[in-house]
Amino acid sequence: MRRAYHVDEIRRAEADLMARLPDGALMQRAAAGLAAVAARILRDSGGVYGARVALLVGVGDNGGDALYAGAGLARRGARVRAVLLDETRVHAGGLAALVEAGGRTADETALDDAELIIDGMLGIGGHGGLRGRAAQLARAAADAAAAVLAVDLPSGIDADSGQVAGTCVRADATVTFGAYKPGLLIDPAAEHAGVVELVDIGLSALPEHAAVEALQAADVAGLLPRPSHATDKYLRGVVGVACGSVDYPGAGMLAVGGALRGGVGAVRYSGPRQVGEEILRRWPEVLVEAELPSAAGRVQAWVCGSGLPADDEYAAQRTKQVVDSALPAVLDAGALTYLDDLDLGEHIVLTPHAGEAARLLGVERAQVEANRLDFVRGLAAELGATVLLKGSTTLIAEPGGGAVRANPTGTAALATAGSGDVLAGLIGALLAAGLRPLDAASVGAYMHGLAGRLARREGPIAAGDLLASLPRAWHNLQ
């Protein structure tokens, strides 16, 4: 599991460690880790000796990290040149080490023929986009042919929220020290970080609970439901699907398809008879029940909303009956328009995209997209339910606070009609199989993203391709 902490928490942990170390020892640890990653990048492109490295050096500790790392590369034969943001406020010890090792200062033309650019302009204390000379250097780095390696985080992104408020560095890789920062896991900032590598510098005073978490493959594999020899189809879980309508039958079919591939023993469909007949033709193993959820057979969880129209009495009735069942449930798409006066709880998983979240909160969509972390927390708290905010980085939050989960497998290939219907069915099945809502939503998003990555290898994908790829995603993890 990747765990990310807010800036003030990391600063307190750093202060605690520095109080127990000799002066400068912490920076030396960080610089050594940075130099090791930089050397590995250079080896992959031809070697360290003789390689041209440009440092973008700010006035804070990030600049010192870059200078000491540059000194280490220079001692191994790299040609290192440092471009200083402010010559009067440079880290004196770092600059002296660089010069002693054979490096030198230079102007921004050093970027033109560099093979590697190390961005040490602005650290975790920065707010807002880059300005002035820093913005100029960020644009020059973007225009250069060199790979860009960021120190702790790309300069100009917001470490706590993942916001990008203006010009910032776009890195190919980021070396982050001690702990992940939320902005490295959450778009739009995460898009600028590239491959993120954590260097352990010995922080031990971090809080017990992180601000943001990201499940990794081993975490997901450990949560996947696995049938035992003593089980049967009912003990594995039965999920009810109250999705689809006469106008949108495909949404019901896709939600059922996602549920069938979610590890449960059976799927019951409750909805219009015409849709049920279409589902049976595709999947004869589905149990087609009464048109209203309250009259359907026993289930352990519900999926509701995909393909439900707005301002429709039947759709509102289906949604209300699902919520009134007090069972774990996923409310998606159309069901999100019928939440007024319903008694939600954290056993309910809401799956809005940014536009739907904005409508529920009474704000503009652009506000949600710019600050996804705060808004997913706010929506979960306001509605008292678990919220999965869909997007390039899907985020999951519980109403009681705690760590927000960030899904690491998202891909633009999932931005296709019906993709969310498959996700809703998959999460509902995981709920029925016994996963708690936060885990069901997190595992469902991870598996959904992984299936999208597998499917896109064969070209552009449609939602139905996700259904074909989900068994492969399970196999790869197990």
CATH homology group of the largest domain: Ribokinase
Distance between the termini: 17 Å
User: In CATH's first tier, which class of the largest domain applies?
Assistant: Alpha Beta
Decide which structural class fits the backbone: alpha/beta
Shape: elongated
Give the radius of gyration. Answer: 25 Å
State the CATH topology of the largest domain: UDP-N-acetylmuramoyl-L-alanine:D-glutamate ligase
Figure out the total of helices.
15
Strand arrangement in the largest pleated sheet? 1-9-18-17-16-15-14-13-10-11-12
Average pLDDT taken over every residue? 95
Record the SSE blueprint.
Layout: E1 2-4, H1 7-18, H2 25-44, E2 52-57, H3 61-75, E3 79-84, H4 92-101, E4 104-105, E5 116-120, H5 132-143, E6 147-151, E7 173-177, E8 195-199, E9 212-214, H6 217-223, E10 238-242, H7 249-260, E11 266-269, H8 273-282, E12 287-288, E13 301-304, H9 313-324, E14 329-331, E15 348-350, H10 354-361, H11 365-370, H12 372-383, E16 386-389, E17 395-397, E18 404-406, H13 419-432, H14 437-456, H15 463-477
Parallel strand pairs: 2-3, 2-5, 3-4, 5-6, 6-7, 7-8, 9-18, 10-11, 10-13, 11-12, 13-14, 14-15, 15-16
Antiparallel strand pairs: 1-9, 16-17, 17-18
Helix pairs in contact: 2-3, 3-4, 7-8, 7-13, 10-12, 13-14, 13-15, 14-15
Structure in words:
The protein has an eleven-stranded mixed β-sheet with strand order 1-9-18-17-16-15-14-13-10-11-12, with helices on both faces. Strands 4-3-2-5-6-7-8 form a seven-stranded parallel β-sheet, with helices on both faces. The protein has helices spanning 7-18, 25-44, 61-75, 92-101, 132-143, 217-223, 249-260, 273-282, 313-324, 354-361, 365-370, 372-383, 419-432, 437-456, 463-477, and strands at residues 2-4, 52-57, 79-84, 104-105, 116-120, 147-151, 173-177, 195-199, 212-214, 238-242, 266-269, 287-288, 301-304, 329-331, 348-350, 386-389, 395-397, 404-406. Helix 9 links the parallel strand 13 and strand 14. With 478 residues, it is an alpha/beta fold. The chain folds into two domains: 2-207, YjeF N-terminal domain (Rossmann fold, 3-Layer(aba) Sandwich); 217-477, UDP-N-acetylmuramoyl-L-alanine:D-glutamate ligase (3-Layer(aba) Sandwich). AMP binds at residues 390-394, 420. (6S)-NADPHX binds at residues 61-65, 123-129, 152, 251, 307, 353, 421.
